[in-house]
Design goal:
7-stranded mixed beta sheet; Glutamate decarboxylase (chains A, B); PyrdxlP-dep_Trfase_small (chains A, B); PyrdxlP-dep_Trfase_major (chains A, B); 4-stranded antiparallel beta sheet; Aspartate Aminotransferase, domain 2; alpha/beta; carboxy-lyase activity (chains A, B); homodimer; lyase (chains A, B)
């Protein structure tokens, strides 16, 4: 337990010290810092409690809404953080934490994060970021290059142009998707004769001017939930989100074309098709090349949400999976996913450096006309220098380094798929396209489940669903490993969604041994379930 | 100059080391880190070059859009960062850097930033943030308490309720304002008989259902430029931003009521009045208490943008300036401004814990119905644990500590105003309400400028404007100190805006001596200007 929180005197002298005097080497915070630097994984395994406390218990430690009056000494506070916060955090660095896209980070980001705070630059305007502004522009240019591979003259012309931008750095994929589709909306319903554009006149006047009922955004049902938020916040309304069924986990081009045409024939206008490069739930990649042609045919924007899968472009082995991404008008990519940058490094990259002028804005004290202030075309205002983390990663890993990491993850996912397939009590539900896969426990006695008649299948799947939920929770609570779960429709079981384990293989430190241990643990958990036992006992004839 | 970048081999072994082996104590990055910890201000003054290089020169260092193929050793890269990036950064910690809201941060944020990256929690869902979720909820509760001061039973009921939230943590004030007005829009055009709400049906159907032409947002002309972005992105259109003239730098309640009524009489609906607590340019606070009544009278939302001024609530001496903020439906506050938290700590606080349900959304793999995942009501998705920085600051400063810092800044601003007023060649343009003020160089011979006839006044003000721009730039480039500039309309010069120096006194280390030095430097710069000399030579009769 933490000791009583030691209170300091309320004096300016004390506060000045907080601003000017670093911690002593033997202070608690300095010791935490040293331990982090010396051996992060040891720090985490020593301080993060493996066996999880219930959320309700943890909430008790964070239940006081009163702001303390007296200042507290830093060291005393640091002890509280260790006891109450760090102890109950999730060890996302653990090689067996493979349930979400958050994983281990390389060491150099620890000191760099200190440098970031120490410099405290604000990227909204050049007056508070000087060299960080060109650095961010270069970094966006490198990412543009990764996707669109234009020639040197192109980058020489646009990289530092005050009237252009190759992209927008932002806090994450959601803001990136909103930014891209905001630009798309303002371009497609842009200024015209006697019309000052949707940004000025609003959607209602835009629909009237362009004589349309609604505008729509299309994606497969595997589209990220941020698309729903986007269409809501942009004022278009969730009913105009054309979410197409995707039993094969991808948006079928011919369905997209048919639905898009029908939608437009009804007096509506397609705003954008969103192709996904690495769906959040199964890691699938839409047929981007064909979807680009469909978007072209329909006369709408083509956006690719490559928040997760974009980094695959580093791999000469696998980049073909994203063929057609270079036709996209805009691309979302998150460096804090497969590029191992700390959270807060989202980007929209624009094919055309003039695109973002559709949302350009000015103010009197910053973002003045002609300035190179980055804030003039971003949705966010003040932002920190997170671009440095990506800039450094691009140099320290290099294209070659990223390729090795990406290739390793995808190959490990394939190996995991083999392990699952080779065990009679597991069912691989979706194959890994990139490094994500889904599977579940399905007893050998039910190996013919997918061919059973519908009602019986639904009934048995319901039982398996509850098993999957239960095993996933128990494994999480045991604290040794973590896989996530989701509900998806898959071809083999028709339109009724089933619950599956979801695994994201991104941590470079995860080994085949870790994966085997996770399967073993699941088998040992499920063995105790009476439902599972009843399956095992039943002769096959009785089930079918 | 940086040495040639040392390239590492492209091998998984090398990459694993980047993930598992920290820097040696004698590596460049470790030395940078130690210097930052030992004496941040010494690090900055040693590495940040005072005399500024031109932006075009700096851009040359960041002009390569090619991604390097081979990995680079961390230490080699760190040297490049020092030479090219740190050297050309802005020293926002300097006590004489008083031009923007970005200033010095307390020391404890350096190690905490490492802890943040080391833990790498993702706040969107509890599975990747466990204790950070309750911590963020508590922190939002403390801020709610600061504004709305409800009783203990209220916080006990709502702080950790899965169906409520007291606010939304986000990357900054812009996202906070968008979130607040998104919620307002979805509440005011919410679900109704035969209508599924604007979030589902879109603005066009909402206007039709509610039989209105447009919805509008009102603020004074001093409203932050993020309001323009907000009304654009929400689909309402910038033409429905009712920006009222504000010669006294505030939104006059009777004007607000009159304009609001006229707007509604024309078949429109007022969405929100935005009161500002600390305008970005002059630091003024709108008469919140009366504006709350106007909003009530008009039947619209009342939002307060207290991104800058919200921290004034810590001060028993000055909190009355924000009287009426407790009537606001939502409040924006940025902890990375006057609360000395690193960038990325914006918040919207909601008076009613059910407000944010107007934008609640779900997904299958996270944000499930009934979960306490924070992402269910935020605009952003993945977010880091920045709330920890605010949580720690609230404990380490305490209300008492923040009060001292706030009081000191406001008192220093008043002292600076006195210094300006007492010098015949300066004109205080706007008095400090909080810790921001504006002024300019105006020669003693023109002390009667505000009473001169209009044409002559405009002409002379134009000359002074160009002087202000020139002096501001020269002072910035000299690199010893920094004040910003803006253009504002002020009562004494009618509706024609004038250019002024803008000063933000937030750095607790800034002293009266620093301020005197800044005025002296400006006088010595301007003395060399021929325009200024000509003013000095002219007898007063000739000017008027």
């Amino acid at each position: 337990m933490a000791k009583d929180r030691a209170k300091a005197e309320v004096s300016l002298e004390h506060l000045f010290r907080v601003f000017t005097k670093p911690e002593n080497d033997d202070s608690t915070l300095a010791k935490i810092e040293k331990h982090l630097s010396d051996n992060l994984s040891d720090f985490l395994s020593q301080h993060v409690v493996a066996k999880k406390t219930s959320l309700e218990e943890i909430e008790k430690d964070f239940s006081n809404a009163a702001i303390p009056v007296a200042p507290e000494f830093v060291s005393s506070h640091a002890e509280t953080l260790l006891d109450k916060l760090v102890a109950q955090s999730v060890n996302t660095y653990a090689p067996t934490f493979i349930g979400h896209m958050t994983s281990a980070l390389p060491y150099f980001h620890l000191p760099l994060s200190k440098l970031l705070v120490g410099l405290n630059q604000n990227l909204v305007k050049i007056e508070t970021s000087k060299a960080f502004t060109p650095l961010e522009r270069q970094t966006l240019g490198m990412m543009h290059n990764l996707i669109y591979a234009q020639d040197e003259a192109f980058y020489e012309k646009y990289l530092h142009s005050a009237r252009h931008s190759l992209g927008a750095f932002c806090s994450g994929g959601t803001i990136a998707n909103i930014t891209a589709l905001w630009v798309a909306r303002n371009k497609i319903l842009g200024p015209d004769k006697d019309f000052r554009g949707v940004g000025n006149a609003g959607l209602v006047n835009a629909y009237r001017h362009y004589n349309i009922n609604n505008i729509g955004i299309m994606a497969s049902r595997r589209g990220h939930y941020s698309l729903g938020k986007t269409i809501d916040v942009l004022g278009i309304g969730r009913e105009n989100m054309l979410s197409l069924p995707s039993p094969n986990q991808v948006l079928e081009p011919k369905d997209a074309l048919r639905v898009g045409r029908e939608y437009q024939d009804d007096g509506n206008k397609m705003l954008a098709i969103v192709g996904i490069a690495g769906t959040t739930e199964t890691g699938h990649v839409d047929p981007l090349d064909e979807l680009a042609d469909v978007a072209n045919e329909l006369g709408c924007w083509f956006h690719v949400d490559a928040a997760w899968g974009g980094a695959t472009l580093f791999s000469d082995v696998y980049r073909d999976k994203l063929k057609g991404i270079e036709k996209a008008d805009s691309v979302t990519i998150d460096a804090h996913k497969q590029m191992y940058v700390p959270m807060g490094a989202g980007m929209t990259i624009f094919k055309d450096p003039a695109h973002s002028n559709a949302v350009r804005h000015h103010a009197q004290y910053i973002l003045r006309e002609g300035s190179k202030d980055l804030g003039a075309t971003t949705l966010e205002g003040s932002r920190n220098g997170m671009a440095m983390m990506l800039y450094s990663s691009l140099h320290i890993f290099g294209k070659g380094g990223y390729q090795l990491l990406i290739d390793r993850s995808i190959q490990l996912a394939h190996r995991f798929a083999e392990l699952i397939n080779s065990h009679p009590d597991f069912e691989l539900v979706t194959e890994p396209t990139l490094s994500i896969l889904t599977y579940r426990l399905r007893p050998a006695t039910l190996s013919a489940l997918s061919t059973m008649h519908s009602q019986k299948q639904i009934e048995l799947n319901k039982k398996l669903d509850s098993l999957t939920v239960s095993v996933q929770k128990q494994q999480r609570e045991a604290g040794k490993s973590f896989v996530s779960r989701t509900r998806i429709e898959v071809n083999q079981y028709g339109s009724v969604p089933i619950t599956v384990f979801r695994v994201v293989l991104a941590n470079p430190l995860t080994t085949e041994k870790d994966l085997l241990a996770i399967l073993d643990e699941q088998l040992s958990i499920v063995a105790k379930h009476s439902i599972w036992q009843s399956f095992a006992e039943l002769p096959e004839s009785k089930i079918a």
